[in-house]
Specification:
The protein is built from eleven helices and eleven strands. It is an alpha/beta fold. The protein has one domain: TIM Barrel, CATH 3.20.20. The protein has an eight-stranded parallel β-barrel, surrounded by five helices. Helix 9 packs parallel to helix 10 and helix 10 (about 230-240) crosses helix 11.
């Protein structure tokens, strides 16, 4: 049950130039984490300083890139495939075994069935490339094409590659109006990565980043374990289905990231201890 920390947990600090990779690595050590999930946008903009991680003994479990394979123009899809190829190459360089992809969203003039086929064909190409590199690509449920256990399983069946898997993102399941625990249970055998994140319905007048659900409700990111998601239930469902990690903690809130990450880790570690005792 490996536990790592996503760079996205400090997204606001990176965007405000209050965090860099060296400080991120130091913070990971301070909170007792030695494995991280990198986000390509922050990593590349920081100059890809691998030594900042290596010098502190920080390993990389996953490398994230934000692909969008849903385009009418074949050249645009090919550009996204090449972006994913580059992520695979960078994953090899940093020693990550997993590359996280996003499917994309429907555009005007594209039928849902066609959008889904675009994702399947694109991911199949990336999975073949990843196989040759000894890396696994995982698809995260996101937006309105691939967003549920059912659609993730469909893509997995069509891609049919040992170098393809799923990233179970529990907050996405919530925002799409589904039960995160049951969705985790349905994809556990396909999972190669799981995001542990959390949120709750936002109070009236909330000024932070609004996560909007398909039902129109607005959610706010929280410390993991303090929100509405049954984190222990999700972990148990994944483990029961054969998933063995890594679990990647991803703080989505607007409060002090270092303090919130520490509280999140404390909550998750306590839950993991309870699960081990079952």
């Amino acid at each position: 049950m490996n536990l790592c920390l996503s760079m996205w947990s400090f997204a606001l600090d990176f965007q405000r130039h209050q965090m860099d990779v060296e400080r991120f690595a130091t913070t990971c050590r301070e909170v007792g984490i030695d494995t991280v999930e990198l986000v390509d946008y922050f990593w590349v903009s920081a100059g890809q300083p691998l030594s900042s991680l290596h010098d502190l003994g920080i390993r990389v479990c996953a490398y994230d890139t934000a692909t969008d394979f849903v385009h009418l123009d074949p050249n645009s899809r090919q550009q996204q495939i090449k972006l994913a190829y580059a992520a695979v190459e960078e994953a090899v360089r940093v020693g990550a075994q997993v590359v996280r992809l996003l499917p994309g969203k429907i555009k005007n003039g594209i039928a849902y069935e066609d959008a889904l086929q675009m994702v399947v064909e694109s991911v199949s190409s990336v999975a073949r490339y990843a196989h040759n590199a000894g890396v696994t690509v995982v698809l995260e449920p996101h937006e309105d094409v691939v967003y549920s256990a059912e659609t993730l399983r469909y893509v997995a069946e069509q891609v049919n590659s040992t170098s393809f898997g799923v990233n179970a993102d529990v907050c996405t399941f919530l925002l799409m109006g589904m039960n995160p625990v049951s969705e985790c249970a349905e994809v556990a055998d396909l999972c190669k990565l799981a995001h542990l994140n959390d949120m709750r319905r936002a109070r009236k007048g909330y000024q932070g980043y609004p996560y909007r659900s398909v039902t129109g409700e607005v959610y706010a990111g929280t410390v993991v374990g303090d929100g509405e998601i049954n984190i222990q239930g999700c972990i148990e469902a994944l483990l029961s289905g054969g998933f063995r990690g890594p679990f990647s903690l991803e703080y989505l809130g607007m409060e002090n990231a270092t303090k919130s990450v520490q509280r999140s880790l404390d909550n998750v570690r306590k839950i993991l201890q309870e699960v081990r005792a079952l």
